[in-house]
Amino acid sequence: MQDLDTDRMVTFRRELHRHPELSGDERETARRISAMLREIGVDEIHEQVGGHGVVAIIEGQRPGASVGLRADIDALPLQEVASAGHCSSRANVMHACGHDGHTAMLMGAAARLVRERPERGRVVLVFQPAEELGTGAPAMIANGLLDRFPLQAIFGLHNWPGVEAGKFVIHDVPHMASSDDFEVCFHSSGGHGAMPHLSRDPIVAAGLFVTAVQQIVSRNVNPEDIAVVSLGSLQSGHASNIIPAMARLKGTARCFKSELRLHLEQRIRDIAEGIAHACGCHMSLDYMPSTPAVANDPACVRLCREVAQGRWGRDALASHPISMGADDMGFLLEAVPGAYAWIGNGSDSAALHQPNYDFNDAILGKGSDFLAGVARHFLTLHHQP
């Protein structure tokens, strides 16, 4: 059995940072995780769960409940610009969301739980791939994660820039949004720019759509609710004097309520159909539901707060606004009660998904202590499986 002190956690985290892998391609990352788990001395290691997912088991001293701890392991398609010695060695791939740190914190928690095993129950460590695509958690579930390793609860920890380093934010309301993508195409016959009356113009339809969808949140959503509809891509044509045959728009719709999620989809569809009819174009819509909102279980919120305050005092907790960012931890929390907490990465930290971002190694130990403490406290309170 190998203890994982802070220096070893930092070394492990920086190894992952130097060798990032994109969603669905985390082969070497999974190999490194499994190798470290063997050194630590967990009881079981299960590989290739839902792709490159790794699941490890730590048995308590006596039978009891089962609790899950989850970390994401994939990187982003982004070129790192930081100058640290552990910068990514791969062009246009980097850990710009701190998944290397999340993995290292969970590994540290594993070492603590192996060294001082819970009196009762079982801890299931979930190292999840493909979070950035929103496909990793559902893939692991579809591959039998919760059937093979039944859980009474699951917990996770995400770093958060802008929050004081090492402070915990544990929301009692949905705090990361559902995320759905859509692609709208307006089709026409196209024509000569000098003779627009002989054709139908998909660019005009696209322009009307850009304006109209901005009214969904302001005019079709209760002001007490929160929602975002954003367009990130508009592609059409290539010449100044040719009316193209097609205009394509891509966007995202985000909110916190399942019924509002359906309403946003319907309004986007209604607007696209109405504009296509008014402009004499044909319309196609590909609406792609991605991740549900992340919502913590109230009892698990209380447990997390008790652990944080019991270990570090009342000042351990901080407040921070909810985020319209998404995380496929939402799939796991739909299936199993649990909580997804945030740990501050520092007030001066670069933002997530930015080329100059880096995980704050100073919070590794505290994050590991928190995860191990949450698992231990849950198993103490839940004696029976």
Keywords:
single chain; about 375 residues; alpha+beta; 7-stranded mixed sheet; 4-stranded antiparallel sheet; 10 helices
**Helix-strand pattern, N to C?**
HHEEEHEHHEEEEHEEEHEHHEH
Number of strands: 13
| Coarse structural class | alpha+beta
The dominant shape is: elongated
**CA-based gyration radius:** 23 Å
| Proportion of residues in extended strands | 25-35%
Span of the ends, CA to CA: 27 Å
Helix percentage: 25-40%
Report mean pLDDT, rounded to a whole number: 96
Unreliable stretches: none
**Major sheet characteristics:** 7 strands, mixed
Q: Total number of helical segments?
A: 10
Arrangement of strands in the largest sheet: 1-2-4-3-5-13-6
Give the oligomer, counting copies of the same chain as homo and different chains as hetero: single chain
Report on the structure:
35% of the residues lie in helices and 25% in strands. The chain has helices at 6-18, 27-40, 99-115, 136-142, 145-148, 202-220, 258-279, 298-312, 329-335, 364-381, and strands at residues 44-49, 53-59, 62-72, 120-128, 153-161, 168-169, 178-187, 191-192, 227-236, 242-243, 246-255, 282-291, 338-346. Strands 1-2-4-3-5-13-6 form a seven-stranded mixed β-sheet, sandwiched between helices. Strands 9-11-7-12 form a four-stranded antiparallel β-sheet. The protein has a two-stranded antiparallel sheet with strand order 8-10. A hairpin with a 3-residue loop joins β1 (44-49) and β2. α6 runs antiparallel to α7.
